[in-house]
Amino acid sequence: MSDTAGTVDHVLITDVLLRDGFQIEPVVIPTADKIRLAYGLLDAGLTSLEIGSFVHPGKVPQMADTDQLVSELRPGESAALHTLVFNERGARRALAAGARNVRLIVSASDGHSQANAGVPSQAALARLRPAAALLTEAQVRIEACIATAFVCPFDGETSPDTVVGLARQLSALGIRVLHLADTIGAASPWHIRRTVSAVRTALPDLPLGLHLHNTYGMASANAWEALQLGVRRFDASLGGIGGCPFAPGAAGNIATDDLVNLCHHAGISTGIDAEKLVALREELHALLGRKLDSALSAVPATPVALRTAVTTG
């Protein structure tokens, strides 16, 4: 499998605002607002959005409208809408709604898997096998995400060997991309290098992405480390909002606006219009009625370097 999404000078950013961003908000965001923000992100140049999760609405009420979002959003041929699936029932719901891009998710640590899925990691993985079979038969593009790939709030540091073992099993299910998640934002660049290198060595042809959180202010440093390792796929959330409701202490995602700023300073293109992100961020601020978490949301103007990739050479 070759990584066709990115070269050395381009990064693919998947904005996860509608899923990871909103899932931890205390007030359910109206579907119409989600749709408006989704189209705003697409208009800003995002070509990949994570819009929801097929979970029981009683467990995560903010995701109750995922079926509707999949059915109503029309991103065009050049953009992909991703949804999360944890089991066969979720896969059937995804297919019924018309999903074409699905992410399977499993935790590397048993502690987080128990909190998030109600069963240990290997049992959660077993649930994904029939789901993957259904999705493959329907020719749905499958990616996967390993949660707590670096640190778990219950079990501590995650061994790279554990992540590699799960990566091998997920690869056997036919996934196109594997995302490694710093679910509680406790990883350091050292963790990133250690685990990304281990997975790369074991599965050199499997494209990798990172899902970073900024609980301890390390997300940008971790993204930079990953860029040096050749990672060219990242999840991010506009304004830096989000977190896992089943991981104590987890704070917001790396911010889409901050990550674009980092990439553009380094001369790495994203295809994203940063000026449009500023306007969207203001809309999000008004919708939530609170301060956003991105560094750029705290400054009055957009740095020149954020507007376009810096010319290097």
Q: Can you lay out the helices and strands and say which pair or pack?
A:
Layout: E1 12-15, H1 17-21, H2 31-43, E2 48-54, H3 66-72, E3 80-85, H4 88-97, E4 101-107, H5 110-117, H6 121-137, E5 141-147, E6 151-152, E7 156-157, H7 160-171, E8 178-181, H8 189-202, E9 208-211, H9 219-228, E10 233-236, H10 256-265, H11 274-288, H12 304-307
Parallel strand pairs: 1-10, 2-3, 3-4, 4-5, 5-8, 8-9, 9-10
Antiparallel strand pairs: 6-7
Helix pairs in contact: 2-11, 3-4, 4-6, 7-8, 8-9
Describe this structure in words.
It is built from 12 helices and 10 strands. The protein has 313 residues and is of the alpha/beta class. The protein has a single domain, classed as TIM Barrel. It has an 8-stranded parallel beta sheet. α2 runs antiparallel to α11 and α7 crosses α8. The protein starts with 11 loop residues before the first strand and ends in a 6-residue tail after the last helix.
